[in-house]
Design goal:
Elements (H helix, E strand, L loop, with lengths): L1 H19 L6 E4 L9 H15 L4 E6 L6 H8 L5 E7 L3 H6 L5 H15 L3 E8 L7 H11 L4 E6 L12 H4 L5 H17 L3 E4 L2 E3 L6 H7 L12 E5 L5 E5 L4 H6 L6 E4 L2 H12 L8 H8 L3 H4 L1 H9 L3 E4 L2 E4 L1 H5 L1 H12 L14
Parallel strand pairs: 1-2, 2-3, 3-4, 4-5
Antiparallel strand pairs: 5-7, 6-7, 8-9, 9-10, 11-12
Helix pairs in contact: 1-2, 2-3, 11-16, 14-16
Length: about 350
């Protein structure tokens, strides 16, 4: 089964590269949860085949689960061009790890961190979770440990309770979650703590030391073309006519494996849809939206496209609008969902009569 799956991934990649003929592959991200669970020989061969197809990338990241990160996994990565590990820590609190359904607890995290500190020479991101039923100061301690153990990048997400998971059906545990006001104060304190430790918030949920921002993430948020491979993957790709299409693979593994080359659904994006995605992605980042880039694609100044919204939110100290460029302040990142609702309403009233090409040259 594993060999079939990995071969299908490579076949799907071959088809995508043949169709879109990219000049180069700038970043690669192997995610999906737990690539570190793959048998080591299978992972090694897969990485070799992948690199043979893509050539060297400016950034190559692989996700790892602390429970399955071991010497053999690091041996495989050392023989590849992978230069960045993203490890799903969630929390270092023993009780919360068990609450989250991770019975191996902090022992697995300590063992994985010890290996990374002793052996890994590349970059490290650690994922942490906010909005857990912690004691006061618990997230501060998690951040301190992640920093002390050699992270150059930290991703901080709020807990998402997925439908069908054990936690989703555990009413007692769900009642223990903090209310929104407590979570907001915890988040604000975390931003201050990370900044004092030298981590700049360059996106809503991502913090990095200077120069250590994820190139892969930045490409995604700037709406660069992206090719996703595997069940549940999504791609934003050129349609061959100067515009963009969205390709979505089925999430069901068995369904995807039955026909990995033609089971995806391709949908052309309208001008309004792509414009809204530019705002949704760009306003997540401290850099914001470049007026020149937006105008080259859509033929309109982004500040004018949603003038009512930007006047309102810049007046409330959430957005900074200069000439044709827009970027969020910290307050804007916290209020992003509300800002985007207003932006979407403004964009509904635009008649997109002239546009350039995507991706911009």
């Amino acid at each position: 089964m594993m060999r079939t799956y990995l071969d299908a991934l490579l076949s799907s990649l071959d088809a995508g590269l043949e169709r879109y003929q990219p000049r180069s592959i700038s970043t690669i991200f192997i995610g999906g949860g737990t690539p570190s669970l793959l048998p080591r020989k299978s992972l090694s061969k897969f990485l070799q085949e992948l690199e043979r197809r893509t050539g060297p990338a400016a950034e190559f990241t692989i996700e790892a689960n602390p429970e399955s990160l071991d010497d053999a996994f690091l041996d495989v990565l050392s023989d590849s061009t992978v230069g960045r590990i993203s490890m799903g820590v969630q929390t270092y609190d023993e009780g919360l790890l068990k609450w989250l359904g991770r019975p191996s607890g902090s022992e697995a995290l300590d063992r994985a961190d010890e290996l990374l500190i002793g052996r890994w020479k590349g970059r490290i991101n650690r994922d942490l979770l906010a909005a857990l039923p912690r004691n006061p100061g618990g997230l501060d301690r998690d951040i301190s440990q992640a920093v002390e153990r050699g992270s150059d990048h930290i991703s901080l997400y709020e807990l998402t309770v997925e439908h069908g998971t054990p936690l989703a059906g555990d009413e007692k545990s769900l009642k223990e979650l903090p209310d929104e006001s407590v979570s907001l104060e915890e988040w604000k304190d975390a931003v201050v703590q990370l900044k004092s430790a030298g981590f700049e918030r360059y996106e809503v949920s991502n913090f990095a030391e200077k120069g250590m921002e994820s190139k892969h993430n930045l490409g995604y948020w700037s709406m660069s073309p992206s090719l996703g491979i595997g069940p549940g993957a999504a791609s934003t790709v050129p349609d061959g006519r100067g515009w963009a299409s969205r390709i979505e693979e089925p999430g069901d593994l068995a369904l995807w494996l039955r026909d990995p080359l033609s089971s995806a659904v391709e949908t052309p994006l309208t001008t309004a849809e792509l414009a809204l995605e530019y705002f949704m992605m760009g306003l997540r980042t401290s850099k914001g939206i470049s007026g020149d880039d937006f105008m080259s694609v859509f033929g309109v100044n982004p500040a004018n496209a949603a003038r009512r919204s930007f006047d309102k939110w810049s007046g409330e100290g959430a957005l900074y609008v200069e000439n044709s460029s827009i970027r969020p302040f910290e307050r804007g990142m916290e209020l992003l969902d509300r800002i985007l609702l207003d932006v979407a309403e403004d964009l509904d009233g635009i008649s997109w009569r002239s546009r350039g090409e995507w991706p911009p040259s």
